[in-house]
């Protein structure tokens, strides 16, 4: 897929799904080199290579119970004790047993394990009982054989992955680093404290966009959040250039249109940027864009232009920034899961409609929320994500449609 037009030329909106594929592909070719990180620091990053186990799992025959490892038929004479953490001597004689702890290595020549609660001792101190038919120990390689691939590259590192990596012997994981992001907020009308009024609005994006970016796995240094940047072309160019020097992604808000103080497009032209996507056939948020700037080191860095209307800015995050970050971290393009609409949702003509919805976990349906103007955040603050209404269609109750979640971890839904 080729990138869209060069800055300065008029843009034809690209379809929402094509735009997502374009930015994902652009991110993938620019993905930073993998790094090795200690297990404890890997949560939330992305596996850069498949996870293979360094040993058989389990690595040795491991008792699943507290009891007796026995050889031959009982009663058995006790010849020792095996605790977890050591190599036991073999049971050399028929009719003998060792006391064994859960997790201990089963001695060679043991035939069976007898649970302590299913055993008795006779007058001579010998052990009696009937071992269960089912083996009470785990065999080496039962879970995985040494060298076996357990997880593919490109999946997120979760606590489950960290635990698995530790249990199969890894101290570090080769991962894609967290993309570093900066935020530049444009708009001289913005207030950064106190109530809005007298023609000025409160900056809603400076405090919230870094939080969304972090939830997408970005590292955002607070020093790289500049809100607001003065509404002049030189200030825009300088701010973007400076931010590009040490991040992978610069998000900007506002100025995506062509109003008297909308300087984003001219600034991108001055920086020699090339559009990956310039305007998307989606409502709200259509003036969103992603541009690529090649640094002196030859590596591509990205500018994501989020529209100034606050809900539109979030639509741009879920529409373009999420697949771009997936590409930059070597993850597959996010595939929206399907949901069932519980109510009517209007279409937006030839454009895709991203409609804020709240999921009803009881009924398994999605319901549009109120207060969803592109300048509003009231609906969004109570929503789980967006139902995707394809161009030329409208949503009816019972329709199955794609769903783009807001990056809210389970348990944090509003
Ligand atoms: N002639 C046209 N004008 C506009 C069109 C159009 O098609 N033709 N589209 C509108 C749409 S849709 C959008 S979205 C906006 C996008 O504009 P910009 O990205 O250039 O954003 P601004 O003009 O800077 O701001 C738009 C709006 O949002 C408020 N804003 C900006 N930043 C923030 C912030 N950080 N926190 C809260 N609110 C913010 C700003 O005050 C404006 O009200 O263009 C329309 N115009
Ligand atoms: O597309 Mo604008 O982003 O509707 O508000």
Automatic annotation (TrEMBL):
Keywords: Magnesium, Metal-binding, Molybdenum, Molybdenum cofactor biosynthesis, Transferase
Matching Pfam families: MoCF_biosynth, MoeA_C, MoeA_N
Ranges where the MoaB/Mog domain occurs: 182-327
EC number(s) recorded for this UniProt protein: 2.10.1.1
Reactions catalysed, as given in the entry: adenylyl-molybdopterin + molybdate = Mo-molybdopterin + AMP + H(+)
BP-aspect Gene Ontology terms: Mo-molybdopterin cofactor biosynthetic process
Pathway(s) the chain acts in: Cofactor biosynthesis; molybdopterin biosynthesis
Family that this chain belongs to: Belongs to the MoeA family.
Protein name per UniProt: Molybdopterin molybdenumtransferase
UniProt organism field: Polymorphospora rubra
Source taxonomy: Bacteria, Bacillati, Actinomycetota, Actinomycetes, Micromonosporales
């Amino acid at each position: 897929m080729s990138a869209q037009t060069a800055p300065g030329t008029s843009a034809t909106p690209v379809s929402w799904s094509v735009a997502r594929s374009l930015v994902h592909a652009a991110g993938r070719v620019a993905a930073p080199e993998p790094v090795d990180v200690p297990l404890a620091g890997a949560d939330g990053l992305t596996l850069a290579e498949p996870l293979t186990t360094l040993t058989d799992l389990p690595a040795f025959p491991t008792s699943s119970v507290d009891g007796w490892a026995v050889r031959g038929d009982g009663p058995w004479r006790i010849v020792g004790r095996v605790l977890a953490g050591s190599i036991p001597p073999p049971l050399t004689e028929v009719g003998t047993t060792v006391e064994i702890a859960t997790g201990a290595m089963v001695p060679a020549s043991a035939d069976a394990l007898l649970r302590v609660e299913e055993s008795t001792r006779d007058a001579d101190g010998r052990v009696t009982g009937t071992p269960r038919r089912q083996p009470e120990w785990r065999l080496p390689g039962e879970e995985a054989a040494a060298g076996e691939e357990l997880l593919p590259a490109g999946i997120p590192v979760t606590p489950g992955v960290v635990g698995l990596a530790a249990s199969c012997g890894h101290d570090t994981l080769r991962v894609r680093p967290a993309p570093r992001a900066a935020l530049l907020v444009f708009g001289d009308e913005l207030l950064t404290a106190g109530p809005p009024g007298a023609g000025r609005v409160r900056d809603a994006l400076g405090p919230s966009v870094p939080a969304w970016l972090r939830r997408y796995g970005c590292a955002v240094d607070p020093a790289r959040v500049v809100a607001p940047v003065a509404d002049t072309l030189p200030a825009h160019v300088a701010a973007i250039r400076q931010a590009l020097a040490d991040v992978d992604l610069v998000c900007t808000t506002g100025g995506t249109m062509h109003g008297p103080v909308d300087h984003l497009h001219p600034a991108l032209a001055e920086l020699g940027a090339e559009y990956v996507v310039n305007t998307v056939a989606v409502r709200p948020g259509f003036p969103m864009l992603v541009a690529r700037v090649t640094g002196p080191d030859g590596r591509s860095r990205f500018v994501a232009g989020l529209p100034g209307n606050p809900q539109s800015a979030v639509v741009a995050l879920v529409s373009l920034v999420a697949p771009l970050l997936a590409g930059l971290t070597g993850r597959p393009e996010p595939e929206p899961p399907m949901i069932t609409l519980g109510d009517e949702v209007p279409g937006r003509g030839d454009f895709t409609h991203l409609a804020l919805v709240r999921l009803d976990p009881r009924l398994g349906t999605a319901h549009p929320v109120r207060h969803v103007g592109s300048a509003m955040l009231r609906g969004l603050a109570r929503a789980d994500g967006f139902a995707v209404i394809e161009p030329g269609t409208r949503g009816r109750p019972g329709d199955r449609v794609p769903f783009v979640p807001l990056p809210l971890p389970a348990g944090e839904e509003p």
